[in-house]
Amino acid sequence: LAPTEMSSPSLKTGAYILIGVGALTMLMGFLGCLGAVNEIRCLLGLYFTCLMVILITQVAAGLVIYFQKETLKEELSRIVGNLIENYDPLNDDERNLQDAWDYVQTQIACCGWTGAKDWENNEILINKSMTMYPCSCSNSSNNFEADSGFCNLGVPVNSTATYADWPVHEQGCMDGVEKWLKDNLGVILGVCTGVAVIELLGMILSISLCKNIHSEDYTKVPKS
């Protein structure tokens, strides 16, 4: 699978934002500790600024995801479609990405993006006359085969089959992901709110500490 087929401007932007926030968080923690221990006002000011930037970035990212969700869904559909079409267990170059998709299908109990029919576009399965199916899609509790790669359907040689003959989950992963998000919406919002509250408290405490340091410095100034 060519790297260009997996590219997505929105996903790249999101990845860069997360990397930037992570780096800023590390810098913020260092500045906050150093400023609090040594009572350095400028470092506490930078700590406050970093917290504010992170909070604004998180809110902006949330708004982008909310208002661009249809665009993101279309891009994910294209990316997953290319991944399924070119899925090859022997392709070590894309092993990590393919393993991640196998994990999604196994954990969410889904198959394909919109359904198992998506796998009928896979080149290997086409060459095998659909007598194999993706193991991570299996809905059989008695299936002891690997949870990645392709499994044999167990039909006579030179036979043909369709996705309807596969012992796989009927639900597509798009519906599965949406259902998971709806079921866990309260937890997700709670975590986001908790993080925002902690950041606000950090901003308030940094301001208070800066004021205390300023007051102490003022009282130390000798009066003429």
What does this structure look like?
The protein has 224 residues and is mainly alpha-helical. The chain has one domain. It has 7 helices and 2 strands, in the order αααααββαα. It has helices at residues 9-38, 41-67, 69-85, 95-108, 123-127, 173-183, 185-220, and strands at 132-134, 150-152. A two-stranded antiparallel ribbon has the order 1-2. Helix 1 (9-38) packs antiparallel against helix 2 and helix 2 packs antiparallel against helix 7. It is elongated and about 85 Å long. The model is unreliable at 1-7 (pLDDT under 50).
Q: How many structural domains does the protein architecture include? A: 1
Using the alpha-carbon principal axes, give the shape.
Answer: elongated
Structural class category: mainly alpha
**Whole-angstrom Rg:** 26 Å
Q: Determine the fraction of residues in helical runs and give it as a percent range.
A: 55-70%
Tally the helices: 7
Q: So what's the oligomer here?
A: single chain
Transmembrane segments: 15-37, 44-67, 187-210
InterPro entries: Tetraspanin/Peripherin, Tetraspanin_animals, Tetraspanin_CS, Tetraspanin_EC2_sf
Disulfide bonds: 111-135
Keywords: Disulfide bond, Membrane, Transmembrane, Transmembrane helix
